[in-house]
Amino acid sequence: METIVTTAPGILADGSVWAFMGAGASIVLAGAGSVLGTYPAAAKGAGVIAENPSAFGKITPLVALPGSSVIYGFLISLFIFLKLGNGDMSLTVGAQLFFVGLTMGLAGLFTGWLQGKAAAAGVAAVGKNESAFTPAIVLAALLETAAIFALLVSILLLNTIA
């Protein structure tokens, strides 16, 4: 009986495909985190502003905070694209770039999403007492540190990939 050994490299054997997926994971997941975070804060902000239009200036920064995740995801996507060069890339390098993109994407997803919950609570606090603005923004911004660390680790990892 003859043994047939096949190697079907297919599209997933191309390192540049993995790099593209990493760039996509970074921007899409981080973008989803920004949207999931911005929406509850914006919805809460609309209610507060309806009752107190003068609070708009204090509400807006809180609502905008979760939007930073997509910026970090975009930066890592851009850096991955810069690593692509002519598109000829080994599977190992492509997989490494994929996991760097996934790292930033997942960090952006969760930090943006949860930062939005903290920002929405801050919006509610400012709606009741405008002097709560500074503590509210500091508390929501604390979640930003995880996204910043993920960005820094992703950049450091990118610099180790040949």
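(the above was protein one; protein two follows)
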Amino acid sequence: MKKIFSILAFVLAFTVGASAQTAVPLSPVLDSIVTSSSLDTSYSFKKVEGWWDAVSIQVVIPKVSGTVTGYALLQGSLDGVNYANITTDTLTLANVATNSKVWAFSSVPYAYYRVAVYAPSSTYKAYVRGYILLRRKQ
């Protein structure tokens, strides 16, 4: 059984490694949300350089403790200061081990992207990880 898992892991690693497209972490690579009696907000962001045809952005929020509530949404900016919501498609955080969502777009109209995670006043701790994958037509 261990051999099967080892072979499967090797094949998967080779397949992913052979791909020229790699998702890179948004900054900060790992941020935490610690809520108490007030709203906590976490931002994971990335400046996009060069010309790209498509973008996929993923947020992963593993729960550490407490009851997770809140939501995450995707925002874009041209100047890196003034952000606007890109889509109304949000991730509503549920009280599960890990919340995750991927947003995919066939164009890259913004210079900056960020995932904004809003946590209302409740008591919990979770981590926020964001990833971005940029693609060119071949």
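Reviewer note on protein two: The first helix runs from residue 2 to 18.
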